[in-house]
Amino acid sequence: MVNRTVVRGGLVITASDEMHADVLIEDGRIAALASHGSDAAESWTAERTIEAAGKYVIPGGVDAHTHMELPFGGTAASDTFETGTRAAAWGGTTTIVDFAVQSVGHALREGLDTWYAKADGQCAIDYAFHMIMSDVNESSLKEMDLLVAEGITSFKLFMAYPGVFYSDDGRILRAMQRSAHNGGLIMMHAENGIAIDVLVEQALAEGRTDPRYHGEVRKVLLEAEATHRAIQLARVAEAPLYVVHVSAEEALAELAVARDKGLNVFGETCPQYLFLSTDNLAEPDFEGAKYVCSTPLRPREHQAALWRGLRTNDLQVVSTDHCPFCFTGQKELGRGDFSKIPNGLPGVENRMDLLHQAVVDGHISRRRWIEIACATPARMFGLYPKKGTIAPGADADIVIYDPHAEQVVSAATHHMNVDYSAYEGKRLTGRVESVLSRGEVVINEREFTGRAGHGRYTPRATCQYLN
Q1: What 8-state DSSP symbol labels residue 290?
Q2: φ, ψ for residue 123, nearest 5 deg
Q3: What pLDDT, on a 0 to 100 scale, did the predictor assign at position 467?
């Protein structure tokens, strides 16, 4: 028995097209598109019809950078896979790629199995994993090959956080050489953590302990230097490179130079760097702690460069780096010592709406919105065209989006398991109305109808920009 749904009358927007079309869904996949009112569209019969007149019909968002249940700084991210994926659905995201973590002294497989267990049966939307490598050695290098074959095709390394996730240049080079061989993609947290630790120590010794100093010690030049170094190591290894959460104009300039040379170097930024700044970190009464993340928020003048990078395609992806910690009891661990504030912001629910606001404000086009939030992350991480587009054969991950609805962002109304919003009080035009995940309605006219366990683990192919 074929289960059919028709979405009628909306403006279908993908990374490449805009068209007034009806969408036919059969058994969780997109079966056909046809012009609204055409004989083909009129001939379709279905168990369910969703009226989308006056609305956008867009692919479900692909958030390629989340940290659900991540242990960090003596605590753990406050969103579980259940609460975090439910919030993602509310925000129009239908696939996340989270990070499994290898602990020092342990195998990649052990870390991956731990994350499989955390997510299994809990997710409201589909999910996949990257692998954080904290311990590059002969054994873990061999394991990379096995993971790529299993559909874990990207590996994150850190130039920051000495003693926790940090890898030195030699280990980074060896991992890059391995990825050049096995088709994996190295994702890099590019900040000079060794130098940052010196500046942290000096700031605390001088009594500079407030949250704003988190941004001041993690200097723009130390992001730019690490980005440059990562690119050169990737060139030596003849490996592709994806730099995560680019926040600074100078770091973006390093990516632009590399891309102008034709190198396979890619960059991601996040909504917090596009909409927030060091003004937030400097908020009084320790409120700035809410905005502590790494890379840190930058002075407002960096925002124009990041928007320009998104328009020129020197930045290809906007992900959230969703890693929420409650202000009460978690961010407060750093009162009197900014270095003890857990690093991370909530945002998985806000990304699609914030980027639509960028369309309204004239920073990007509608198709570019879908490109940076849906199609490119799916291509970058081997999920396209199953995810990231509306086309026959694709999973029916579809968002009915009301471009005229107005909302005010607030912790009082969001669904993330965290006690504050990084965008509290921000007025936005545009809002998710309904969401389908593989054809199943998980948000129905602003009501959650999904369930934990609907989301499926999705193995990934290798980066589709390298084929």
Answers
A1: G
A2: -90, 140
A3: 56
